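Collaborator request, handled under Task 6.
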Amino acid sequence: MVLSPNLASLNLVKAEVDATLAQVEAQVSSYVEERNSPVLLDSCVEGLDQILGALRLIELPGAVELASGMSQLMRQVQTNGPEASDETFAALGQGIMVLGRYLEYVQLKQGASPQLLLPAINQVRAALGQAPLPEGFFLQLPKLLPAPPALPQLDVSPEQMVALVRRLRLMYQTGLISVLRDHADIPHFRMMARACERAQQLCGQRPQALTWWVAAAMIEALQHGVVVNNPRKVLLGQLDRQLKALIQNDGNGQPDRRLLGDSLYVVGLSDDTEKTAAVRHEFGLADYCLTQTQMTTEYELMCGPGGSVIKTVASVLRDELAQVKDTLDIMSRGAKNDAESYQVMADSLNRTSQTLVMLGLLDSSQAMRGQAEEVRKWSGEPDQADLHALVDTLMDVENAVAGLVKRVTPGADMQINNSRVSIHQLDEARALLVGESRSGLSLAKRAISSYLESDRDLMHLTNVPSTLQSVAGGLSFLAIERGAAVLRSCSRYIDARMLSAELQPNMADMETLADAISSVDYFLESLEANKPIGESILEIAEESVAELGFPVTAAKAV
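Structure tokens returned to the collaborator:
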């Protein structure tokens, strides 16, 4: 289920949580090697409890569930001491790794998908001797369940109903046996779906009809490629028992919400088919569930190389590309145009292509290998067309690497439409502009402080409006229009109510002005640290200038 976490709070505690996780991991490793240090376990329990408390405040349900299980498991290790099993430590190690990667994933995606944590959660629960969580555990059903499409209700006597349900169970079980033995083919799924459709028809407008409508869609999802794993086999077995119960409840019992949630989770994994599309639409699953393909992609992203590793490799690649470009620049002036120099450059291009494979940039790697082969063919001074082709490839690779870094950088702007523009250099320019903007705000704040300390000497404020206008222009270039509008309002306020006024504002108004400027500065600081704090801080700035009587006039869209 895709949730909207409190990213601002996560950004504030993420570094501390990472440090605590690293400390716990190191202490667990030390204890595994030498199981005679119970003090290490005390520290681990304390660290996991701190992490659990922080995650509860942030309201990350999947992460809370995992951290809670790890905390219980650590206490179990504390009780068992040296007798703790290797499986227990394996579950703890996996949980620590996955939790850290998941928090980074949430920052990058700016959304939470707690179902990605189910494998790690259930591994911890298995080590605790607890039953695994069902697949639909994190899927929150609406309080008011929708009604399924109306089908003609069968008017049968009690005796006829018993006979019909028995036939439906036989039809369902015939397909189910093949599924349980992993021998199922399309006809087996169709038999099971048909049994569910008939059960829905038997229920008519009664509550249990919803269970069978969703069940038929779930079986169709399995028929069209959703993996049939053990939890889903158990789910299919539960539906068989629901069929048997039809004889007693006559379809009048309320749907089992847990069974319904697990079935909907499987439907959410599928691409749209006739039955699944209707269920996905009625329950809005497209907004809350990942398809099976998306789940695989997102899990690989979460468990793949960490952001710090990718950034380190990218930095090395940028250095190698810079050296190649420097060599090209020398060649363009007529120097080093010999076979030996070309071979050295080709070797460098080949090494770069191998590193690109490690990062998963296969197209860029292939393009780089192609250019390496072309360079090896050079003998004299290369043609301008050949040089331009190599430069274009280098630019494309540089942008691909920069794009990969952006994908592992929280809050990074991924919009770039010109492949001939160096994203790396553009990012450097943006970072420089953010830094210069913060310097301008610091200058303005120092000037206002000097104004207050000098008993309201207006000389200190002379350049503040123009400074704020200059910073506002920089923010407009960065597409931070809300912040720019706030600073323009602050500039107008200082001009009208301070520099041109006989009566100076009171301290309450000065504090409100400081709130507005500081809020914009906090927002820029979060961008500078790649830990975006969110636009709620800009709402505070807008409220502050509105309270001063100078509401923003620029568009708020960023």
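The cover message to the collaborator said: "The chain has four domains: 7-128, 158-299, 305-407, 424-547. The longest helix spans residues 423-453. Please let us know whether this matches your experimental observations."
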